[in-house]
Amino acid sequence: MTSNAVPECLIDGQPANQVRVTDRGLSYGDGLFETLRVSQGSIALIDYHLARLQRGIQALRLQADIELIAEEWRDLAARMGAGVIKLTLTRGSGQRGYAIPADVRTVRIQQCFPPANYPEAHAREGIRLFSCATRLAHQPLLAGIKHLNRLEQVLARSEWNDPQYAEGLVCDIQGLVVECTMSNLFARQDGIWLTPSLAQCGVSGVMREYLMNEMRAHGEQVEEVELQHSALLNASELFCCNSLFGVWPIIALDRHQWPVGPHSRYAQALAEQVIK
């Protein structure tokens, strides 16, 4: 890529906007994706994104060149300055049927978008959560990775249109708290940060992982637990996080309310160090 113009979409490194109708990402959701925040010409938490992508590649037994993907990311970020890059990695095209073709070739799609535009009030004043009825099924083989099968999240997000809710709370089939529709969740209880275990389902967000590491490094106790809904309601502070918006304090869920506490502000400051 020699032009300074930023492409809207690259497919296998070339400007394009179409894939074959036989692509297994379209047919079966057979692939992975990563969504990256670009600011000041660099990618926030790029090492965390690459590590999760590698875990997903191994879990799905895909063939992909991580170094090439990272090189494209850095090149696009330097040219964009600010915005969002979305990588979609599919297993490629194949004949009808679930069996993986022996000669299939992975397809690499890089899309470039303007910066995400979230209301500043979400970070400053906190957000209200919608309580979603959609439940997440258990599948340990896929838990944590960002595979292309996102119908549960689509259905959960379709449950509300009221702008007073910025996010939705999602539980698993046993009623345990897992995450929000597009972010991870932390609850503070008795001086300890609790975040739901993602051993059975859910997405292991890179901001979640970063905050766990940073808070522990600064002396905070953070535990991954099977989080009961009742324990969530008894928390003293709540926040949700992802790599695009950082940290949003949670101030309400159903009839329950929480303050925007100092510990959530501390987590927010840690996030702001990397998302700039």
TrEMBL record:
Its EC number is 4.1.3.38. Its cofactor is pyridoxal 5'-phosphate. The keyword 4Fe-4S does not apply. GO terms for cellular component: cytosol. SUPFAM superfamilies: D-aminoacid aminotransferase-like PLP-dependent enzymes. Pathway: Cofactor biosynthesis; tetrahydrofolate biosynthesis; 4-aminobenzoate from chorismate: step 2/2. InterPro entries: Aminodeoxychorismate_lyase_IV (IPR017824), Aminotrans_IV (IPR001544), Aminotransferase-like (IPR036038), BCAT-like_C (IPR043132), BCAT-like_N (IPR043131), Class-IV_PLP-Dep_Aminotrnsfr (IPR050571). It catalyses: 4-amino-4-deoxychorismate = 4-aminobenzoate + pyruvate + H(+). The keyword Transmembrane helix does not apply. GO terms for biological process: 4-aminobenzoate biosynthetic process; folic acid biosynthetic process. GO terms for molecular function: 4-amino-4-deoxychorismate lyase activity; pyridoxal phosphate binding. Keywords: Folate biosynthesis, Lyase, Pyridoxal phosphate. Homodimer. Involved in the biosynthesis of p-aminobenzoate (PABA), a precursor of tetrahydrofolate. Converts 4-amino-4-deoxychorismate into 4-aminobenzoate (PABA) and pyruvate. Belongs to the class-IV pyridoxal-phosphate-dependent aminotransferase family. PANTHER family: AMINO-ACID AMINOTRANSFERASE, AMINODEOXYCHORISMATE LYASE. This is Aminodeoxychorismate lyase.
